[in-house]
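Batch job 17 of 40 flagged for manual review because the log was empty.
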Amino acid sequence: MVEIRDKQELLLSSDGVVFRQECSSVLECMREELDDHRQAINENTDELSATTEFLNELNRKLDKLSERIDELTLLVRGSKVEKCFEIQPLSGKEKEVFQALYLLTETQPYASYEQIAKDLPMSKSVVMDNITSMIQKGVPVVKKLDGTTVFLKLDPEFRLIQSKENVVGLNSLLAWV
């Protein structure tokens, strides 16, 4: 780096070539420092992104582990108690929404209100109302919030019982994809 005194001497000197060379060297040093700083920021951003992905994966694994521990705890106590689901009769629209949710979560873990509405000739608000009504009638719907989007799925045990016993009372058989 050029000292302040050197800068004053350059400004006072009559040699413009020397002045331009010194300014160029100062600007080049500044450019190198800025490039180093930008590179460090990019490396930190990549590291934060990788850490976030790792933590999300770790969270998923912890959820699975927690479920397994719960199952083992129930098995150690004796036998696993099956849940008993008491479902009040659903309306026609509720059955449509139920079937759409059931079928969408065959191929993916969760479905959003938007996906269900897109699958049916209904608006998102009508789907939300029907899901709320189904929950009030005893249908165990699991909700998960990801950012600002709510994702839904049926309780896995209820889903199994529904496939065997048709607890909800759907007129058509649910297709296995």
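Reviewer: the log was empty due to a logging misconfiguration, but the result itself is present. Helices lie at 4-12, 16-77, 92-107, 113-119, 124-136, 156-165. Unflagging and moving on to job 18.
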